Amino acid sequence: MRAVAQRVSQASVAVDGEVVGQITGPGLMVLVGATHTDTVEQAATLARKLWTLRILEGEKSCSDLGAPLLVISQFTLYGDARKGRRPTWQAAAPGTIAEPLVDAVVKELRELGAEVATGVFGAQMSVDLTNEGPFTVVVEV
């Protein structure tokens, strides 16, 4: 699994103009993608990594501060644009595989005690955020 985590002071996601998930205060906005061979165990590992990733102010983690996370599914994290001008999406898992894995990340984060907001799987979403730092990191498990 692959994630892009951004340190934010606020973030929200809207579908058809309606906000469906948002966080305020220091926290992480996380895009999560899955490939064909990813497992629920990897989803749990990714969740634990995100919860304890020390990228907030003062090298703190969400677990240290009780900071919220906004988790959004993002199949394009597995896009490949090395050849030509049009990316391919062959490495991205289809929805039947990816959706339960993204849900497993969210479930594990909540079980760890995290406040988690989400987008809507497969929807056309508009994401608004204030990246602090800016600080963005790619996490793979």
Description:
The protein is an alpha/beta fold and about 140 residues long. It has a five-stranded mixed sheet with strand order 4-3-2-1-5. The longest helix has 17 residues. It is built from three helices and five strands. Helix 3 links the parallel strand 3 and strand 4. The N and C termini lie close together (about 5 Å). The mean pLDDT is about 95. The protein is globular. Helix 1 packs across helix 3.
Largest beta sheet: strand ordering: 4-3-2-1-5
Q: Which stretches are low in confidence, meaning pLDDT under 50 for 5 or more residues running?
A: none
Q: Tell me how many strands there are.
A: 5
Shape: globular
Order of helices and strands: EEHHEHEE
Quick one: biggest sheet? 5 strands, mixed
DSSP helix count?
3
What structural class do the secondary elements suggest? alpha/beta
Strand content: 35-45%
Q: Taking Cα atoms only, what radius of gyration do you get, to the nearest Å? A: 14 Å
